[in-house]
Amino acid sequence: MSILYRPETNWSNIYPIPKVRNRNDKQASLSVGISKTSPKDQFTLVKARSLIKGAYSEAIEVNEFVRKYFRKDMDLTKKAALEEDYLTNYLPFNDLTRKMKFLVDVIHNESQKELSDLGNEVQKRIHKLQNPSDCKTAKKLVCKFPYCGLGCQYHHIGNCLLAALGTNRVMLVDYSSVRYPGIRKVFLPLSDTCSMEDLQKQVEEWKGELQESYEHIQVVRLDVRHEPSRNTRFKGLTVPKFLQEKIEFLHDDPNMWWIGQIMGYLLRPSPRISVKVQEIKKKLNLTHPYVSIHVRRTDKLIEEARKFEIEEYMDPVVAWYDSQVGNACNYTRRVYVASDDLASVIPDARNKYPNYDFVYNAVDDKKLLKDMKQTVQSRQTEDELVAIVCDLMILSQSDYFVGTYSSNVGRLVTQLMHSSSDATYRSRSIDHRMFYHGGLPLTYRAVEDFSGGKGELSFSAGETIVLTSFVDSPSYKGFGRNEAGHDGSFPMHKVEQTLTFVQYPALNDIF
């Protein structure tokens, strides 16, 4: 039976599975409605869910490993023939991956309602904190908009909002040095009741001390790009304490869900942008399912990242489409492309992948060829800002995303995907691991012993491993430091990520 995956698919209509409709029902189920079950049953269920998701993740890795090395150094003709004859039709992992994907989707579908309700409540709390009834008496945290690219700007402002939530303050943003002149026209206001014009008190600088030191001060300024200012417990890759008993039932990556809520609030599109996005999707016939890729080039290649060829973006795309459908399905494999170098990316992609429909947000091919190899300066106009934001929204609404996490935009897309659902298996970076600039380092706990060879890290079960490099490592391998201070690579299936829970006062009474 061939199944085409869509995020909104009701899998129970395809493979009927009993659901727990009554939260008091203690029947064993994949549903998240287990709050009334015994601790032993809850532990068993969490373990089963974890094993299913872990097995699915490992199946994806094996599938991509086989694809990558079995086809290495083949010319395009041989690759295409092999993909059609073997990788698509006969590779057992494809069928295995589809079956495991079904189980993961059952878990996610059962979690989605509760996850959406939780996200809505968090958004209400952020909105309430940002909109006090009396702005003059409300405590405030002022952040200056940094002068850098769009993704960089909002990751820094995200740090500021985390600090505001942690200290129960309204976050106000100083736009005096903003890089994009129309930035306040493309997103909804961060506050409807407060603005920089409301500042009447002396502003004191945040020196990175704990929140208690500032309780008597009404207005504090936080320099989000100044390293000492990040000396705060409220930062990226911390999770609110109130989620500790619940979030791992609902989401595979709680860190990403929480950052998704922050970015989801900051990047709420204005009505103008929402209409524009729908117009673009209609013009391009961009209906689900579709995959998106973000190809970052130009100035990014100077010192921050290396150039990736189109094949490196498309390998995960091809694997995703192959794993979602069977040969009996007749449909268009559509890929939405966002890039600062469309003039070279689009022709290259169409030449090497003629069976895929590559679409992009451009007026026409003449404009594409003449104007779309943009300079950094041309991306700072209001028109280009609108184009970038529309790209961001269309990328984040796709069924599957491939990009680079060395790019702030690549990370933003994935974070936005997590703001409304569990997108753990719907995005892929071809270079760095996910990280949050100014946040905590990623830490892991060893689940079993590992005796490493040359250049590898050895550790015992229960030991803490700190990831020390995010750069260009395959997802099945990490590079970190053990408790003895030794560095080396290690297999990711030997560890599990640990979470750091922090008390965010603005969210304390959600449950």
From TrEMBL:
<keyword id="KW-0728">SH3 domain</keyword>
<feature type="region of interest" description="Important for donor substrate binding">
    <location>
        <begin position="296"/>
        <end position="297"/>
    </location>
</feature>
<dbReference type="Pfam" id="PF19745">
    <property type="entry name" value="FUT8_N_cat"/>
</dbReference>
<keyword id="KW-0808">Transferase</keyword>
<feature type="domain" description="SH3">
    <location>
        <begin position="439"/>
        <end position="500"/>
    </location>
</feature>
<comment type="similarity">
    <text>Belongs to the glycosyltransferase 23 family.</text>
</comment>
<dbReference type="InterPro" id="IPR001452">
    <property type="entry name" value="SH3_domain"/>
</dbReference>
<dbReference type="InterPro" id="IPR027350">
    <property type="entry name" value="GT23_dom"/>
</dbReference>
<dbReference type="InterPro" id="IPR036028">
    <property type="entry name" value="SH3-like_dom_sf"/>
</dbReference>
<feature type="domain" description="GT23">
    <location>
        <begin position="137"/>
        <end position="431"/>
    </location>
</feature>
<dbReference type="InterPro" id="IPR045573">
    <property type="entry name" value="Fut8_N_cat"/>
</dbReference>
<protein>
    <recommendedName>
        <fullName>Alpha-(1,6)-fucosyltransferase</fullName>
    </recommendedName>
</protein>
<keyword id="KW-0328">Glycosyltransferase</keyword>
